[in-house]
Amino acid sequence: MSAILKQDRLLQVIVAPQITEKATRIADKNQQIAFKVLPNATKPEIKAAVELVFKVEVQGVTVANVKGKSKRAGRVMGRRKDWKKAYVSLKPGQEINFAAGE
Length: 102
What we know:
The protein is of the alpha+beta class. The chain has one domain (3-90): Alpha-Beta Plaits (2-Layer Sandwich). The chain is built from three helices and six strands, in the order αβαβαββββ. The chain has helices at residues 3-13, 21-30, 43-54, and strands spanning 14-17, 32-37, 58-66, 70-73, 76-79, 83-90. Strands 1-2-6-3 form a four-stranded antiparallel sheet. Strands 4-5 form a two-stranded antiparallel sheet. A hairpin with a 2-residue loop joins β4 and β5 (76-79). α1 crosses α3 (43-54). The longest helix has 12 residues, at 43-54. 17% of the residues are buried.
């Protein structure tokens, strides 16, 4: 894979940061940041993407496949899409500040 294609792929791997009460608690307690990532993203890709986008050093990556919720609209049952969540552990002294717009 060429360097340009690989960098484009890495920029697409991270979909959005997960900013929830649980994610905030984990960030404070374990120095981990939660991200919504592409369903076919691998741990090495997630690590490289975070290091590229946020200019930090990553210690480790843990992933969880989240099942989509069943929803109902009248008689019709539907289902949200399944998605993947990544918990990224940063090396000591590293920090990502989303409020500053890095």
